[in-house]
């Protein structure tokens, strides 16, 4: 018999190539692309084989449901995301979905029904790698989506509204009484568990995130004839801003991080002084006040640089998520299940964002981290030991058993 944790990892590998990737080289699976739908079809098959009924909601999340021992019971949602960053590893996102399917496969093959239903959610847009907004689909499920956020276009100018029915999108919302709790298993994407020599850890909370889109305007000019002191060079201004963001975060506490991940030179050419650039800025910290103070300082420096260089600056906030603590009682259940799986319980914080941050507005949340080699993620070299995924699966099953023992249907 194949062990579920091993199968979960190999299924992530199976989905890492075309037709499940947008690109022939490496894995890029963006929200609502043909590869996204191909991966959903495969997941739907695996969900059905595990004993679930399968549906898609209006936000194009794929959902499998395994009924409770009694009808109409609230559900424990086990979720994670199916989309990826560009040139991604295989496990950031899908592993949590695959483990959810394995949980249900294990219960259904043993003929076990819990007093609550179990639903596996494959969320669609966690990374924000296609549209300039992230976690759209979990926000729809939690009911926290501002419809204005759906008025977005991808890099090719395709509007979200051309791909899905935006008017129907909020109907993906779940009634709070239909959801008991949310559990997400995810690779750690950092080096802590590896340093501790541990396969898994209980997450205590997720750091606050802010994202901006910045545009810098200068004057396009001839690279051979525009004297240096007469230039309004947008690229040079952007470069100074990127380094300013880095220096603010470097000088701050260890949990403060600032990243410029996308830079674009509009109509750039080797012999043209740049007239327009844009870039993204992502700022995070364990608490929102620290994050906001750093973002304010970075933006103050951007304005100073723009003034000095006589450049125009436009700043648009595209993403703002508060820090999200996990539920203390659920953390205790994960710790207990960890002990029962013969590992010392260990708690750690998440610097990466997860759909759990959004789901926390709907229900109590828990997250289980799985060790990944070297802490490497958002990189094709991402690696998970299948034996660690097997430990995670045992802990998830133990967690569910304990949740069943504490569940009060009244
Ligand atoms: O950006 C993040 O933290 C995550 O990987 N979505
Ligand atoms: Mn990610
Ligand atoms: Mn992820």
How does this model look, in words?
By secondary structure, this protein is α+β, with helices and mostly antiparallel strands. The chain has two domains: 4-207 and 323-406, Zn peptidases (Aminopeptidase, 3-Layer(aba) Sandwich), CATH 3.40.630; 208-321, 2-Layer Sandwich (Alpha-Beta Plaits). The chain is built from eleven helices and 16 strands. Strands 1, 2, 3, 4, 5, 6, 14, 15 and 16 form a nine-stranded mixed β-sheet that branches. Strands 7, 9, 10, 12 and 13 form a five-stranded antiparallel β-sheet that branches. Helix 1 packs across helix 3 (94-109). The radius of gyration is 22 Å and the shape is elongated. The protein starts with a helix and ends with a helix. The mean pLDDT is 96. Bound molecules: (2S)-amino(hydroxy)ethanoic acid (HGY) and manganese (II) ion (2 copies). Residues 126-127, 352-353 line the site of (2S)-amino(hydroxy)ethanoic acid.
Shape: elongated
Relative strand content: 15-25%
Tell me the number of helical segments per DSSP (H or I, 4 or more residues long): 11
Using the coordinates above, name the CATH class of the largest domain.
Alpha Beta
Q: What name does the CATH topology of the largest domain carry?
A: Aminopeptidase
Largest sheet: 9 strands, mixed
Which structural class fits the helix and strand makeup? alpha+beta
Number of strands: 16
Compute the separation of the termini in Å: 39 Å
As a percent range, the share of helical residues equals: 25-40%
